[in-house]
Amino acid sequence: QVHLVESGGGLVQPGGSLRLSCTASGSIFSIPIMGWYRQAPGKQRELVAVIGSGDSTNYADSVKGRFGISRDSSKKTAFLQMDDLKPEDTATYYCKGRVKPYDDGVYSDYWGQGTQVTVSS
Which member of 16, 37, 51, 90 lies 3.0 to 4.6 Å from 12 by CB, making a disulfide possible if both were Cys? Predict the structure, then answer.
């Protein structure tokens, strides 16, 4: 069984910073893609940032230049460094990993339970 656990959310003032972490555990061969998504009240879940093969990255236009996604050397922990936070960034942030298990030849997506980020003065 694969589990993803996020941490690092909280309440920050506009212009502040937060660093989210997501750690995957379980019977994992590789995680070629990890990503961060967010969902604000009354809105659809949206992509924030993804990191894939060769550590290539993609970002939503709304966060480009402010957020950075990265992974540690294990490739099982992803980070989302969020700088210059704005009230519009307030949402529940979810980590997703595209996982290749040791005992399965197919890739499956796994989600964390989410961590709340609130940006308010």
Answer: 16
